[in-house]
Write a structure and sequence with these properties.
Largest sheet: 4 strands, antiparallel
Shape: elongated
Radius of gyration: 25 Å
Number of strands: 7
Strand content: 5-15%
Distance between the termini: 79 Å
Order of helices and strands: HEEEEHHHEHHHHEEHHHHHH
Amino acid sequence: MSTTPPGSARGLDEYRPELRPQVLLSDALLQGAATVHLIKDTSGGGSFRVGPKEHFLIARMDGSRSLTEIGEEYAREYGRRLDGARWQQILRMLGTRGLLAGAPSPTPTPEPAAAPTAPAPAPVPGRGLLRGSIRLVADADTTTDRLHRAVGFLLTPGWMVPLLALVLAMEAVVAVRTGELLDVTVELFTNPVLLVGTATLLWFSTALHELAHGVVARHHGGTVAEIGLRWRLPVIIMYCTVDNYLYLGSRWQRIQTAAAGAVMNLLFLLPFCALWLFAPLDTATHDALGALLLLGSVQALAMLVPLPPLDGYRIASQLCGATELAASTLVYLRLAARRDPAAAGYPRRARTAYRAYGLGAVLALAAVLAAVVAVARHLLPT
């Protein structure tokens, strides 16, 4: 199919534009007071934003509809028709970016007006003394696909529901016995051997955390761009970059992908919880397992705090249906606090989302502060 439509008006009307298979369209997302859609070229052309009207047109370019048919749908929806000049402008923009079938791939040099909007990709793999990253596998998507084939059955309701029930039961035990677990955690830091063993298990849990994001994304049709190690000495962590997270099929799938890491951290603790509760262990090992349960639970729950760049922030962004949620919330709340008329110009959905996120973030920070104070009171002598 030719990318450039015929020059005659008749040919333009009959032209049936088709997006390349590599082009992804996001759902509607709030950004400030506006509603935007993200468009991404997974072959390397970057991503950019369009408004609802442009998205309405682009989403219908599947090769089955002519411009006349798309134009009629647009007229019914928005009450106005597009003339030939406007169609030429839209098609020229899509063709220049290489988004239409048959168009050449766009050059990798980004245009100033098309700054990427998706979360920034992992740094280019490299080596450095104090900071850097390196890929662990040549084809991260294939590796993730193999992992999904091996453990994907655990994502079915028949497995996941009882596993989550066990996790809730475990966390209830941890909550009831928090005082005891705090004491043994303090003792753990006096035993270098057990401390190193516990730290190693927690690091392994973070690696599984990252792989879980990739496996769940793969389960929902996502792709994984990189799996590797990143270091900011003395910290070395694993990373797994989901290339098309914002373009997964539904909001619920994106929430599942974001929550997968924390859930994996908690699932990792289940066998150690069973040993701690029921196995005949010596006191030192029993106490070390108790410390692992507390530290691992804190590690997992901390990732769910709804502040960037944590997983909880991604979940909150999906619940609010927004991109750049934290920045947009700050701007709106400042306007609202000053009773700026611009705040009233925000649509109701945006006002509700930003108020809800602002309140949720404050409550989450208050809960964290309360937990820190409670721990301090327990550990410090009166």
